[in-house]
């Protein structure tokens, strides 16, 4: 799993002189201090972002091992690392001030080599990048991996474009009234607008707008808005609304077209079933399946965790499965008390109420894993995405966080 | 972090208005016009009386009446640490913090008079997470593109420091009907 | 309790234009946004420092209320605010780097007005200040409040002196082989040395050494070292050793003299009783009583939490009381589960094993409170320092931290 | 944070020595001489064979033999997050971290051969707290003035970045007797 490089030697000079002098210590055996490099990013690895520790931990979802950490500067809400497979780099949009939480602010993108995880560069960008608790759609790499797009909020809604080859800021383009960045091509992306449309823009290499088109209004931002969390399937982006309507947007057409269908039947709706969570959905591109966290609840519960993951076949336009999530609360408390397994573990499992999951991700390989967390629990569950079987937990993932990011 | 911590502070709420508000508003207005894109955004309120605040009915028992409780009626669309538990109050930022002139609103039902009020949830900024009385409720809350109803956004982005500390829940008007939603 | 100032008005410009236009909203009543100032620091207030949130919360130990927060920059281990009653200011030694956890480092002291809690100044100092998990004795204000002393570790052990009136760095003096800063006068302090002595140094206004004297060796740094946490009683500093020997150092003599006596009887010693913790002891100056966290344990348990606080009369040189600590683990878990009080609370109290306290502080008034925490629990207990009665808990104090600091 | 989390990683430990160590040592030596005060501090080790490491006996069952467990025999005076749980190992720092040339040591008993070994607990630095497998044991640990036995100190203070990430536990020699203490 791990490779070792860059041996740095002995620090034994700090041994007490007396210890050396009176021969109580034999300086054999001796193990040198080494430094680990990352193996090539595997399809089953996942970044787990924590807002309290202000960092992301990379886990191997097969072994449950943590592989590495990328820390964030002192901005409020850390953004997950963005993986460029073509350059084998991670990009982290950050912001920091001169005196901790005070003083002049600098926004920048840190470039990490994905093998050494050393910071290779900081690219300073205009101080306007936005933040939200989950930063869903707040920064994305456009297709091909050359251009990073970052959503800005203050003083204006816009998107900054950064050339990751030249490592320079290109320009920003106005996206007033819209939020989020959903890549659709090498120099194009879509954004969700308050008037119920989805706008797609394309720029040239200098960041100048060369195409700008919108879908017709396909959702109602007040009565049944779509969640910010979109799922990409090839040339399509799939969104789900508060009530469970699935909007499948196809960017091959110009302007993009939308196919909408309800993921919730009338009886289910009467039971209150609806999608809910932070990173509420994830799609497997090859299988063309959409996975969505569902719970029975009232209006206003659209960020609540849910006990189930519903699986939709995007081609057929129908639900094909419902997975029940394991009791992550019980596992978390058992871990806290050091009581894993055994009778007490079983007791906890049956006593502690499960609050469910609110954050979902999926790996894109042929044996896909579904990754689920509850933003206020220190563990994440790993499920077989084909069967819903609970395979294992990732433990000690942090204190609180709203993102799980699969690097490829 | 623990949830729904019972917290027994007297509600200390200031009701006086500052003389500097109109000039502050003028600045904010300029800022908003130039800054926030022309497509959706509102201007200054057109018609407001400038007289003193009416006192709100306050005799609510239980968690709906406890400003340090997540179930407090004003918190129906809040997201974050309650300033009540961080050295501030329902309407005041804690010592040494600043705030953003832009923020999100909610429409909450006051059980004392069965009336819906507009609530402004200002973030108090310039210190790290307070870490107490974490509360997330989302009645009428909307995604980031419907930004003035969106509580996920770090509204400290518009403050002198983007560090998020805690949130208040001020009444800024009466709403004749509930925010539509389903 | 709170006073209000600096009203900032209405932000109603962001109300939806439609809401205004269709008259669904009446802009009365209206509450302005206000900003709180701190009342004068009360004798029963305490700073609770958290290493994960990297900040200190000020609590009123009578009401259990949090009054304010002072955050730290991104250095690893936050130092608690230091109160100057003469200037009514708080001082926080901090360090930060240019790019979050990377890049050029700047060390500085932030000056906060103790009424507004606004940062009034940053005093940049040479980049050599040391850090430890608890920072016990790592920064202290010398008597009179004009000179702040900060312990340096890299590249050399020394102490930096800062003029808080002029807000400038004065100079640093070498303290090689010694650690900690224990103020003894306006321009003098003591430091604990590896050779078992305590060294006292005095400087002039320009930071030049004018007096330098040491006690005779009174402890054995290997066999029975004294804890870093000293407690001041007027012109004396009181330390306790791993085995429970109390060393009462009197700085009126020149060089300082030491009176040593064992706080543990032979039978207690055979039961394994010994002091343990992070901030292991605290003294009430007027009562001349020393409070120390005790537990029964093996050697190597000197940082373990303890179930009891032992109370020593420093004049008589004898123990006068033993307080049992409340079950903070049970209270913490009850809080986590939202199960405070009632049957379940009682059940937890009797099921969850109490790990005890490892951090202690005391207020200096005539009705003194003893404040106790366990560094890995989110609560602290407030006890009557005269009777040991458990009065209340401070809740949601953070995630982990080793300090409780009474501002006066 | 949870404690004593059971953690099932294979121990990945590298034993080869780098060619660049002697030159690195020379640099470290200069630094230490100029830097750490003359009163107490040691110089470079005077007599060490430069041949390959002897393998350590490793067949310990139970938590004393699990490098991801706080009870692992080498951890007798460690304080912090185990690098084993953070993408490193018992002897290696996680990707993208640096380390300090100065650090603290412990003397731990290996139950496999009933022998005491000197352990160097290097801090890995330059990222925030790893946050996993927090472990504090203090056998033979001493206060800050006895600094090379003191585990409270943030040893990243001597590294390129003072941010503390995790700690390793390397064997750097055999100890003929246990560190005296009571």
Description:
The complex is a heterotetramer, with 2 copies of chain A (408 residues) and 2 copies of chain B (182 residues). Helix content of chain A is 7%, strand content 45%. Chain A is mainly beta and 408 residues long. Chain A has a single domain, classed as YVTN repeat-like/Quinoprotein amine dehydrogenase (Methylamine Dehydrogenase, Chain H, 7 Propeller), CATH 2.130.10. In chain A, strands 23, 24, 25, 26 and 27 form a 5-stranded antiparallel β-sheet that branches. In chain A, strands 6-5-4-32 form a 4-stranded antiparallel β-sheet, with no helix packed on it. Chain A has a 4-stranded antiparallel β-sheet with strand order 7-8-9-10, with no helix packed on it. Chain B is built from 1 helix and 9 strands; from the N terminus they run αβββββββββ. Chain B has one helix spanning 21-35; strands at 79-81, 92-93, 98-99, 104-110, 115-121, 123-125, 134-136, 164-167, 170-175. Classes of the chains: A mainly beta (408), B mainly beta (182). Chains in contact: A-B, A-C, A-D, B-C, C-D. Strand 2 (25-26) of chain A pairs antiparallel with strand 9 (170-175) of chain D, so a sheet runs across the interface.
Q: Biggest interface and its residues per chain?
A: A-D, 62 and 78 residues
SS elements, strand count of chain A? 32
Helix-strand pattern of chain B, N to C? HEEEEEEEEE
- End-to-end Cα distance of chain B: 30 Å
Q: In the CATH hierarchy, what is the superfamily of chain A?
A: YVTN repeat-like/Quinoprotein amine dehydrogenase
DSSP summary: helix tally of chain A: 4
How much helix is in the residues of chain A? under 10%
Structural class of chain B: mainly beta
Largest sheet features of chain A: 5 strands, antiparallel
Radius of gyration of chain A: 23 Å
Q: What portion of the residues of chain A fall into strands of 2 or more residues?
A: 35-45%
Count of DSSP strands of chain B:
9
């Amino acid at each position: 799993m791990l490779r070792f490089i860059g041996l740095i030697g002995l620090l034994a000079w700090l041994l007490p002189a007396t210890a050396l002098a009176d021969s109580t210590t034999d300086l054999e055996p001796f193990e040198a201090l080494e430094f680990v490099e990352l193996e090539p990013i595997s399809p089953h690895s996942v970044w787990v972002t924590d807002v309290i520790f202000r960092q992301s931990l990379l886990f191997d979802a097969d072994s449950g091992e943590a592989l590495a950490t990328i820390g964030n500067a002192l901005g409020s809400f850390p953004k997950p690392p963005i993986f460029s497979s073509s350059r084998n780099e991670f990009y982290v949009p950050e912001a920091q001030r001169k005196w901790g939480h005070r003083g002049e602010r600098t926004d920048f993108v840190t470039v990490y080599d994905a093998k050494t995880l050393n910071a290779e560069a900081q690219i300073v960008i205009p101080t306007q990048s936005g933040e939200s608790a989950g930063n869903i759609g707040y920064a994305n790499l456009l297709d091909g991996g050359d251009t990073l797009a970052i959503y800005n909020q203050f003083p204006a809604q816009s998107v900054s474009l950064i050339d990751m080859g030249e490592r320079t800021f290109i320009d920003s383009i106005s996206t007033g009234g819209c939020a989020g960045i959903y890549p659709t091509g090498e120099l194009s992306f879509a954004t969700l607008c308050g008037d119920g449309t989805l706008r797609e823009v394309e720029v040239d290499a200098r960041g100048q707008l060369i195409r700008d088109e919108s879908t017709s209004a396909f959702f109602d931002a007040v009565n049944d808005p779509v969640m910010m969390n979109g799922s990409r399937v090839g040339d399509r982006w799939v969104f789900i609304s508060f009530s469970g309507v699935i909007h499948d947007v196809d960017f091959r057409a110009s302007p993009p077209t939308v196919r909408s269908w309800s993921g919730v039947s009338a009886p289910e709706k009467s039971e209150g079933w609806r999608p809910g969570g932070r990173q509420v959905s994830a799609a497997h591109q090859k299988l063309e399946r959409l996975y969505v966290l569902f719970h029975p609840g009232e209006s206003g519960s659209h960020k609540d965790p849910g006990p189930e993951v519903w699986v939709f076949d995007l081609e057929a336009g129908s639900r094909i499965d419902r997975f029940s999530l394991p009791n992550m609360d019980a596992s978390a408390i058992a871990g806290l008390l050091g009581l894993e397994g055994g009778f007490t573990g079983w007791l906890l499992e049956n006593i502690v109420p499960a609050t469910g999951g609110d954050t979902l991700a999926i790996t894109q390989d042929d044996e896909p894993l579904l990754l689920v967390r509850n933003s206020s629990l220190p563990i994440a569950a790993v499920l077989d995405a084909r069967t819903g079987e609970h395979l294992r937990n990732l433990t000690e993932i942090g204190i609180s966080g709203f993102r799980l990011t699969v690097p490829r | 972090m623990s949830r729904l911590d019972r917290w027994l502070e007297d509600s200390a709420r200031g009701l006086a208005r500052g003389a500097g508000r109109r000039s502050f508003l003028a600045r904010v207005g300029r800022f908003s016009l130039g800054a926030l894109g022309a497509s959706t955004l509102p201007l200054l309120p057109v018609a407001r009386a400038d007289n003193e605040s009416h006192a709100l009915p306050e005799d609510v028992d239980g968690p709906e009446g406890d400003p340090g409780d997540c179930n407090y009626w004003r918190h129906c669309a809040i997201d974050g640490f309650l300033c009540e538990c961080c050295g501030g109050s329902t309407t005041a930022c804690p010592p040494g913090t600043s705030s953003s002139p832009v923020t999100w609103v909610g429409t909450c039902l006051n059980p004392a008079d069965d009336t819906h009020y507009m609530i402004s949830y200002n973030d108090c900024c310039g210190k790290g997470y307070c870490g107490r009385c974490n509360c997330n409720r989302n009645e009428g809350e909307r995604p980031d593109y419907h930004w003035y109803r969106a509580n996920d956004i770090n509204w400290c982005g518009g403050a002198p420091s983007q560090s998020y500390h805690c949130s208040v829940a001020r009444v800024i008007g009466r709403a004749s009907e509930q925010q539509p939603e389903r």
